[in-house]
Amino acid sequence: MYLCRHYYEQTMINNIYLASKPRYEILDGLRGVAAVLVVAYHLFETYYGGSADQPINHGYLAVDFFFALSGFVIGYAYDDRWDRMSTWSFFKRRLIRLHPMVIFGTLFGAVMFYFGSCSTFPLINETPWWMTILVMLWCFTMIPLPNSMDIRGWGETNPLNGPAWSLQWEYLANILYALVVRRFSKLLLGICVAVFACLTIILCLNIDIFGVLAERSYAAYTVIGGWSTTPDQLQIGFTRLLYPFFCGLLVSRMGWLIKVRGGFWWCSLMILILLGMPWLGLGTEGDSRWTNGLYEAFCILVMFPLIVAIGAGSSVKGGKSEAINKFLGDISFPIYITHYPLIYMQMSWVENHKDAPLGMHIFVAVCIFFLAIGLAYAALKLYDLPVREWLKNKLFARSTKIEK
Prior knowledge:
The structure is a single chain. By secondary structure, this protein is mainly alpha-helical. It has one domain. It has helices at residues 2-15, 25-48, 62-78, 87-112, 129-140, 164-179, 186-204, 231-254, 263-276, 290-313, 319-338, 340-352, 358-395; strands at 16-17, 397-398. Strands 1-2 form a two-stranded parallel ribbon. The chain is globular and about 60 Å long. Mean pLDDT is 91; it is low at 1-9 and 399-404.
């Protein structure tokens, strides 16, 4: 009788869908602000590459901000639910939330793949259609693609949709949280944050203690990287994930919330300034690029947790502010995970039309920017929300209990 009852209780824990908690709307909106800046950063990157005069020069730091947001939200949403939720139930919830758009972004990347043909991507013309489909199916799983199967030439873990690399690290963070980290005390979590802060400083100052950063001169004194499976990229990826995610989780557990009037706008302004800051240490006597490393460490270690704390502690009520915040929050994940196939196409167009007038280049870039927004919104409404609702109904039984 006891075994039957225990089996029944475990089955219910696995299959009941607990109602979602009230969301921190400003955090959703700030994710959208950073995601839109990422799109603009990539559009400019087509023309500027990695040069120091890129208008949104530190746009890549948005990924580190996303990890900090993720740590906070995961802690808030799930830390107090483990008496009513199994590990498998947690994994199902996270897959329902993330994986439909991961599949959509990869599928869209496969559809757009051959439109990116140019010398920048030397392997596209050599790739048969069946190989593209094989890579697409592999990337649906979110398992990093081996370099031997690269079909673009950049060594990305998802050559059909580059930004998926950060979602692969996000998946790893969710696995670590569910299996191990959720059991950490606040003290142990704080110790981890301190250790991972040291790793962040080591990376930002380009201290090659593991002997794998020697080939990284193009990105020295930055956190750029994490999208491949080479030793240096793995070190960068782990470093970029660990401190922000664990720190966001610690902020949530400690309840470090800061209430600021107009918090959404102040936080948005800080994100814009931090991501738009020019590279530091260039154009001075001697090699002072290390100052850029200090700047990026300051953003990751101090400013991003501060912005998360302000965003979580503040509120946005009524008027245009709430509408803008909601719209940006709605498209935040879709636009991040769907925009890059359009950037591949832009790179190809620019390379094949180098002599086009400046106005034409501006027109194409602006059109792609708004196309990315439109695509993200359409994907959300017509695909992501319906698919997630269908998956919830298939994988869970609705709970009638109201969450407090």
